[in-house]
Specification:
By secondary structure, the chain is α/β, with parallel strands linked by helices. Helices cover 47% and strands 12% of the residues. Strands 1, 2, 3, 4, 5, 6, 7 and 8 form an 8-stranded mixed sheet that branches. Strand 5, helix 20 and strand 6 form a beta-alpha-beta unit. Helix 3 runs antiparallel to helix 4. The chain is globular and about 75 Å long.
C-alpha cells in the first residue's frame, strides 16, 4: 500500500490508487471462494499478547517515552490484527479525504469553534454559521483547492465535483472511457460487502416479498416480476437473495448498463428466474408494476436533482397500494456520526457531488418524487439500513 499521507492527492489519484491496490483482492476470476476480505487479519492467539501488553504499559504510573511509543505501536498493531483486510483498505483509502477535511477545517477556523464548546457536541449548522461555509459541506469537506474555488459551498452537479475539477472528467464518464478502471471498479463492487450484512439480512424478505399471486404460472416471460434490482452490477445480490430465500416466487430482473450486465452469469437454476436487462436508470423504467424496486448504494453517488430524476422514473412504474421501493444505504444520525460513514460521505461528495443522507434528508428527497417512507429498517442506528417507501396518496 502507498503512504497516502506523504503526498497531497487529487480526487483522481485517490481513486486510481484505491482501484489499483484492490485489483488482486477483487478480481472475480482469481479471488478465493471464502470470504477472505471479511476475515480478521490475525487470530485471537496473536491478539491477546498485544492486548495484555497495552494494559500493562497503560498501568505504569509514569511511562517513559519508549513505553509510550510502544503503547501507540501496539494499538496500531492491535487494530490491524482485529480489522478485516477490507476494513484496512477502507481506512487507508479514506485517509486522503480525512486529510482534506483537516486542511479545510483549519482554513475555516472550525477548531476554534470546537475548542470554545469545551467538548460539547456542535451541529453542522452551528459550524456553518460560525465559518460562513455551506452547511452540507461542513459535514463533508472536500479537497482544499476545489472547495476554495467553490467558496466552500456544497456542489450540486456531478459534472462540477472535486473529481471533475481535478481530472476534467465526471467520474462515471471517466470509468466508461477507461476500461481498466471500470473492470476494477465493477470487480470491487461485486465483493466489497463480504462479511457485512446485506439488505436481505436486515429487511424481512420472507414476509414482505411473499405476496406475489400466481407468480409462477406460465413461461419465464409470462411470470410476474418479484423484484427489479436497479443498478445491480453483475447480479451478485439477486443470486444470493434467491439462494438464501428459495421460497420466493416470481421473476427477478437485474438492470445495469450494457457493458456491466454483459458480464453477469448465473447458475442454470437461476437462469430460469433471473433476467439480465440493460437499462440506464435516468431513462423511464420499462418494468411496470413489479412488487419491489431495489436500489443498493445508488443514490449516495448522485446529488438530489439526479436522484429525483431516477426516483420519478421509478415512481411512474410503480403500482399504487402494491409496489414498494427499497433503498439500501446509510441513514445517518444528525449528530455523532461514526467515522466510516462520515468519511464515505466525504468521498461521495468529492467523487460525485453525492452524499450520505440523514433520515430527514431521505424523507425530503422521497417526498419530492411523489413517494413516502413506510419504514426504515436498521440493525444499528446511524448504520446501513433499508428504506421502504411507497407512492404517496
Amino acid at each position: 500500500m502507498p503512504h497516502y499521507q506523504d503526498v497531497e492527492l487529487t480526487g483522481f489519484h485517490a481513486v486510481e490508487l484505491s482501484m489499483t491496490n484492490t485489483t488482486n483482492m477483487t478480481d472475480s476470476r482469481t479471488r478465493p471462494k471464502t470470504n477472505s476480505l471479511a476475515t480478521m487479519n490475525s487470530h485471537e492467539d496473536q491478539i491477546s499478547p498485544l492486548f495484555d501488553r497495552i494494559k500493562q504499559n497503560l498501568a505504569a504510573p509514569n511511562p517513559t517515552s519508549a513505553e509510550h511509543a510502544q503503547i501507540l505501536e501496539d494499538i496500531s498493531r492491535l487494530q490491524l490484527a482485529v480489522e478485516t483486510p477490507l476494513e484496512t483498505i477502507y481506512r487507508i483509502g479514506h485517509q486522503t479525504w480525512q486529510n482534506a477535511c483537516v486542511r479545510i477545517a483549519l482554513e475555516l477556523d472550525v477548531f476554534d469553534t470546537l475548542l470554545a464548546k469545551k467538548g460539547a457536541a456542535v451541529g453542522v449548522h452551528e459550524l456553518a454559521s460560525a465559518s460562513g461555509a455551506g452547511a452540507v459541506f461542513l459535514a463533508a469537506a472536500k479537497l482544499p483547492e476545489y472547495m476554495r474555488s467553490q467558496n466552500y459551498q456544497n456542489p450540486t452537479e456531478s459534472t462540477n465535483s472535486a473529481f471533475a475539477y481535478a481530472t476534467g472528467s465526471e467520474f462515471w464518464t471517466h470509468l466508461s472511457n477507461t476500461p481498466t478502471h471500470s473492470h476494477i471498479f465493477n470487480d470491487f463492487m461485486a465483493t466489497r460487502r463480504q462479511g457485512r450484512k446485506s439488505w436481505y439480512d436486515i429487511y424481512p424478505v420472507g414476509r414482505e416479498l411473499s405476496s406475489l399471486p400466481n407468480a409462477d404460472t406460465g413461461s419465464k416471460e409470462e411470470r410476474k416480476v418479484l423484484i427489479v434490482d436497479v443498478g445491480g452490477n453483475r447480479g451478485h445480490d439477486l443470486a444470493e437473495l434467491r439462494a438464501r430465500n428459495p421460497q420466493l416466487v416470481g421473476k427477478m430482473i437485474l438492470q445495469d448498463l450494457p457493458d456491466v450486465v454483459a458480464h453477469a452469469s448465473f447458475d442454470p437454476d437461476d437462469n430460469m428466474v433471473i433476467e439480465a436487462m440493460p437499462h440506464d436508470f435516468f431513462q423511464p423504467q420499462p418494468i411496470r408494476h413489479a412488487l419491489a424496486y431495489h436500489f443498493r448504494a445508488i443514490f449516495h453517488d448522485w446529488p438530489d436533482s439526479a436522484c429525483r430524476q431516477i426516483l420519478s422514473h421509478t415512481a411512474a412504474a410503480m403500482q399504487r397500494n402494491y409496489s414498494k421501493l427499497l433503498i439500501s444505504e446509510f441513514v445517518l444520525p444528525d449528530m455523532d456520526t461514526a467515522l466510516f460513514p462520515a468519511t464515505l460521505d466525504i468521498q461521495m461528495m468529492g467523487l460525485h457531488a453525492g452524499m450520505e443522507r440523514s433520515e430527514k434528508q431521505w424523507r425530503t428527497l422521497l417526498d419530492s418524487a411523489g413517494l413516502k417512507v413506510v419504514k426504515i429498517w436498521q440493525d444499528v442506528k446511524g448504520g446501513e439500513g433499508v428504506i421502504e417507501a411507497t407512492l404517496k396518496g
